[in-house]
């Protein structure tokens, strides 16, 4: 006689497997957990007797490190009935371990940290004139980036509109334009515009040369991004617009472009970030943007601290935009799935 199926398996429904009592984001089996604890215990026993560069470590310090590491591993592997609490403990343990590893590197690397601070983080050596020059370079970077972004975006919109009219001659011109300026490196293009334009009787100010370079280069990318957004608009909507008597321009302005812009928002934001990063290329022709001013101040002080400040400035400017791009990408993906 065959055995009666388990109640959970009645009707052909498979019985769910029970979760292990020990689980976590790092270790998923008791053997791995025990191995990790064994390594920690060995480390805790060996660390007080180690002879690091720069002197020994106190017993209290080694016990503190061992205790925290033990807490980090145990907090990650012990089964917790409250899943949210488990995530919080795991996050705290991960952050703490990163800080712990950083402290160990600082303590035992043997680096001359006072010398490092004097060379790379000597803000006093800049003086008021150096800080003003760097602040002016930051504002110039913002000015060039914002103006070039607006010009490149609207030129890209115009190129997309020209393609939408489906005129063979104009569409061919736009394709050549996009291919050429997408293929040209920005540093080559800015050199050609700044140094080559005077030979044909065109004299451009430094700022105009940089803005024109970024506009020509990135408008080609904006055009391609918007074209992909236009392609995502359903053909039936275009037919409906024509049946209502809307012309080509009104169809593009009222129906196609709003939907294409919404679809292309995440890659457009990423292109904005790429354009702002490429403002550093304007320093090649002497535009006093942030990198150029940092190099000038470095030559005054014979100290690389201005480059560190420039790095911090670029991070403050670009990291929020990068996160915004990621947020928009996730949000648009969620909206599309909901629809």
From TrEMBL:
Belongs to the binding-protein-dependent transport system permease family. HisMQ subfamily. This is His/Glu/Gln/Arg/opine family amino ABC transporter, permease, 3-TM region. Keywords: Amino-acid transport, Cell membrane, Membrane, Transmembrane, Transmembrane helix, Transport. Its main location: membrane. SUPFAM superfamilies: MetI-like. It comes from the Bacteria. InterPro entries: AA_ABC_transptr_permease_3TM, ArtM/GltK/GlnP/TcyL/YhdX-like, MetI-like, MetI-like_sf. Part of the binding-protein-dependent transport system for glutamine; probably responsible for the translocation of the substrate across the membrane. GO terms for cellular component: ATP-binding cassette (ABC) transporter complex. It is found in: Cell inner membrane; Cell membrane. Residues 138-325 form the ABC transmembrane type-1 domain. GO terms for molecular function: transmembrane transporter activity. GO terms for biological process: amino acid transport. It is a multi-pass membrane protein. The chain crosses the membrane at residues 32-51, 63-81, 88-106, 144-164, 307-324.
């Amino acid at each position: 006689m065959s055995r009666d199926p388990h109640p959970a398996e009645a009707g052909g429904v498979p019985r769910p497997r029970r979760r292990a009592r020990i689980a976590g984001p790092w270790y998923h089996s008791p053997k791995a957990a025990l191995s990790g604890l064994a390594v920690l215990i060995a480390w805790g026993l060996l660390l007080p007797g180690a002879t690091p560069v720069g002197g020994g470590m106190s017993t209290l310090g080694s016990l503190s490190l061992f205790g925290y590491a033990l807490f980090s591993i145990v907090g990650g592997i012990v089964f917790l009935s409250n899943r949210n609490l488990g995530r919080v403990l795991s996050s705290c343990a991960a952050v703490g371990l990163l800080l712990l590893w950083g402290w160990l590197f600082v303590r035992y690397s043997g680096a001359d940290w006072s010398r490092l601070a004097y060379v790379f983080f000597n803000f006093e050596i800049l003086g008021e004139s150096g800080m003003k020059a760097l602040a002016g370079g930051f504002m110039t970077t913002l000015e060039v980036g914002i103006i070039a972004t607006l010009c490149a975006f609207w030129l890209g919109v115009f190129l997309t509109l020209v393609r939408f009219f489906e005129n063979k001659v104009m569409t061919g011109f736009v394709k050549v334009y996009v291919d050429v300026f997408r293929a040209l490196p920005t540093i080559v293009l800015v050199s050609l515009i700044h140094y080559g334009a005077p030979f044909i009787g065109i004299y451009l100010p430094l700022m105009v040369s940089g803005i024109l370079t970024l506009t020509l280069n990135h408008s080609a990318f904006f055009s391609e991004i918007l074209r992909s957004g236009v392609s995502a608009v359903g053909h039936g909507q275009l037919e409906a617009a024509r049946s209502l008597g809307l012309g080509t321009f009104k169809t593009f302005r009222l129906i196609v472009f709003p939907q294409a812009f919404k679809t292309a928002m995440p890659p457009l934001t990423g292109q904005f970030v790429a354009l702002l990063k490429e403002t550093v290329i304007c320093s090649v022709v002497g535009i006093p943007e942030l990198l150029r001013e940092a190099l000038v101040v470095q030559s005054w002080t014979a100290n690389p601290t201005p480059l560190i400040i420039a790095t911090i400035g670029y991070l403050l400017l670009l990291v929020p935009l990068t996160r915004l791009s990621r947020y928009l990408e996730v949000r648009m993906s969620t909206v599309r799935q909901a629809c």
